[in-house]
Amino acid sequence: MVAFAPTREKSVGASIDQGLPNICGHESEILAAVNHSDPVFLPETNLNLDQISAGFACALHMHQPTIPAGAQGELISNLQHMFEHQGIGDNHNAHVFADCYKRMGDWIPDLVANGQNPRIMLDYSGNLLWGIEQMGREDIMDNLRRMACDRQYQPYVEWLGTMWSHAVAPSTPIPDLKLQILAWQHHFAALFGMDALRRVKGFSPPEMHMPNHPDTQYEYIKALKECGYRWLLVQEHSVERIDGSSLHHEDKYIPNRLVARNSRGETISITALIKTQGSDTKLVAQMQPYHEAKGRGRQQIGGVEVPCCVSQIADGENGGVMMNEYARDFQPLWSEITQNGRGVTGVVGLNGTEYLELIEAAGVNPNDYPVCQAVQQHKIWQRVNPDQATPEAVEKAIAELKETDHRFHMDGASWTDDLSWVAGYENVLEPMNQLSAKFHAKFDPQVESDSATTQTREYREALLYNLLTQTSCFRYWGQGTWTDYARELYNRGIALV
């Protein structure tokens, strides 16, 4: 067991309580902790902005869904199911997957001990974190604690928040967006402490899925900001310029200001780092963002010259390239650029919050970032005057566009346009929405009259099933086993509400 110095921070309780993950019950404490404007990386970074020609920021996305597939139908991680059924499909990769969830906790300390200056951003779903605990894999958890809690490695590792059960935002019921976000924050704080949670300022959307319905996108960004997030990763083709054109090429390498306008004309914005298109796992596993950054340089934002940053994310375990080639390419690279940004001018690795804090400390105003919005929205605002918008006018415009423009949709956009998490999955979506509605009908009045309701087992168990039915995996593999899992989760959840 790895030991870390104790803190005096307020506890949110055990990460697992009576068999349930800690996903609710301390909402006010969580929100008080995360809503701060203190710099996170700036006091600790060892980089000099003036000595950075360009940067690259890579994130690893890790996820395994929770499924009702234990020996007695109990909830288990799909990773556990893979270990227990090695002869099915690619389940033989279970050991390799588990090592992928663990290995960064070995690589980063080794690199730092050898004088290197690595950077990595980590995105672990709540499902996966719970599953690792359920399996008793303390070897993995110890490495994750090292990355989250040991101050020695905090300049090098950034944790990103996400939806607890890997829900894709466009089809998540609007009232559950904030519950998904808060559930992950609860769980992360229970595992690694409130101090570690205070450092989580970037958000990684599951499947890089961006809502483009005006009201859903507005509530999504509103929830992110209310939960203390400063920025999120955005897939480049999921957004557009205000006039509907694609992002300018140069704008993909600096922060953007993502603006959302709802059907009442209200606006809200958040900083976005643009993830460029490409074969994600191959790009990250072979460290191609570094090689791309070598061909870039510094740019102007509002009259301030700053290094550009190539941002990319990939599954941290899926695919032969990530499983087999990443170790070969990730570790040796850092010796090539050890002194860059700290005595020598050149390309450096960055983390997202570190990059934003460095350039804003140099005088960049976030209001000068290029402005973007969710894809397809310009078509709505061409038909509806934003200053006179009403829900009725917006819905009328959407209906007309669906009738006249076969390319128009309000399903959002993700890392691929070839896959839908909506079409053909009505047998999952309708029960999912029904469970959400019944959950809120039962518990919202109780929570409003007594906030301690969220600390009860009854609430937590019902919330768990509500969130689990929203897991994107149940709408990825087509009809069959995975949609059956969703139906079983719905049946259990509906019995609780």
Automatic annotation (TrEMBL):
<keyword id="KW-0378">Hydrolase</keyword>
<dbReference type="InterPro" id="IPR011330">
    <property type="entry name" value="Glyco_hydro/deAcase_b/a-brl"/>
</dbReference>
<dbReference type="InterPro" id="IPR052046">
    <property type="entry name" value="GH57_Enzymes"/>
</dbReference>
<protein>
    <submittedName>
        <fullName>Glycosyl hydrolase family 57</fullName>
    </submittedName>
</protein>
<dbReference type="GO" id="GO:0016787">
    <property type="term" value="F:hydrolase activity"/>
</dbReference>
